[in-house]
Amino acid sequence: MEIKSLIASVLPFVLGSLYAVYNYHQVHLGYLILFFIASSLFHMATNANDNYQDFLHAPRDAANQEFLEDTNVVGANQISIKQARTLTFGLGGISLILGIWLVTQTGLPLLWMGIYSYAVGYFYAGGPKPISSGPFGEFFSGFTMGFMIFWISVYINTYDVAPITWQSTLNVLVSAGLAIFAISNIMLANNICDMDEDIALGRHTIVSYFGKPVMLQVFAWSYIVGYICLMVAVWIGVLPKLSLLTLLSVIPVLKNTRQFMHKQVKRETFILAIKNASIICLSFVVFMGLGLIF
């Protein structure tokens, strides 16, 4: 279930909660805890589904034998299809029950946010045309985890005091921009490292369309755009000024980005994208939290 990747959903959850406190001065702690449990369970269900679907649909030929037996967790650990399916839909089912109950307490907007998120979670690797096998995987991963989790955290805390408007949604989107781009770069780094394997498995990600050199530039510039979103959010007054200290994370992020652009090997340098996302989001949480205190 790739527990280490939970950082991609936990930190946007915390950021959204801090945003609600800063702008609306309230938290519904009980609902927030339930949402944290539901989103974490669904994140694990989505990761399990990715591995399960990849194993299920990978071509059974000599070229993919290493992927089936050594790379994919289902084959490498000799997990049966039934076990994988039970785990995936069991986690997703518990998450769904919690989510539906939260809808009954907070209102229909959460239902539409949830339908979108669950659809992306399943069709990311499932269905006849999985999102992860096409050119839009980075967008959906970054937008869904970086923005939707952030936005739902805001909504659950403010549903009874602040209606959803285009302006409020735009403010949340800009505030979540740094997390969106940092998380989408995890997927992009994965696809850059796996380009040859993906092509062998019949996947045509954005890297196969534009090539590694172009997408490496996109990888680097995505961080810059994210930092610009942070500065804009502070400028319009929806993030505390101390959040700007998150810019200090540029130093380790730049170092890791240069290292990744020099060498793209899944087992050696893909972890750098996860480190960057962790450094960025954790710094964001710390300095936004200090902004709330001071």
Present the secondary structure layout.
Elements lengths: L6 H18 L4 H29 L7 H7 L1 H4 L4 H26 L1 H16 L13 H22 L7 H10 L1 H17 L1 H6 L5 H5 L1 H24 L14 H13 L3 H4 L1 H23 L1
Helix pairs in contact: 1-2, 1-7, 1-15, 2-5, 2-7, 5-6, 6-7, 7-9, 9-12, 9-15, 13-15
What does this molecule look like?
With 294 residues, the protein is mainly α. It has 15 helices and no strands. Helix 1 (7-24) packs parallel to helix 15, helix 6 (108-123) runs antiparallel to helix 7 (137-158) and helix 13 (250-262) packs antiparallel against helix 15. The radius of gyration is 19 Å and the shape is globular. The termini are far apart.
What is this structure, in a nutshell?
The protein has 15 helices and no strands. With 294 residues, the protein is mostly helical.
